[in-house]
Design goal:
Strand content: 5-15%
Number of helices: 4
Structural class: mainly alpha
Number of strands: 2
Helix content: 40-55%
Number of domains: 2
Radius of gyration: 18 Å
Shape: elongated
Length: 95
């Protein structure tokens, strides 16, 4: 829960900073016109098997379902496991 709070705090800080109008491009000469409204954030946590725990099959299923419900109820915050992140990375084209 602390990690979720930290991400949400960082999102809020990003939003406030974006509202100042004092954001410049890399050269520092031109004011940027793009503004942030409600950015999406990504939180990468533990491995899938860590979420399931060491209990019975029923316990593992309940924990997986609870985790899935929790991450579906967090708006504009993708919560993924390291395993899922690695699976996504495998689809990135390589040279």
């Amino acid at each position: 829960m602390d990690a979720v709070s930290q991400v949400l705090e960082q999102k809020a800080g990003w939003f406030i900073q974006g509202q100042t109008g004092q954001n410049f491009d890399k050269t520092g000469n031109r004011r940027m016109t793009a503004r942030t409204r409600d950015p999406k954030a990504i939180l990468v946590i533990g491995r899938g098997r860590d979420i399931e725990g060491d209990g019975t099959s029923r316990d593992a299923e309940v924990r997986r379902d609870t985790f899935e419900l929790f991450r579906r109820y967090t708006r504009n915050l993708d919560i993924v496991t390291f395993d899922e992140w690695l699976d996504r990375a495998r689809f990135i084209p390589r040279d």
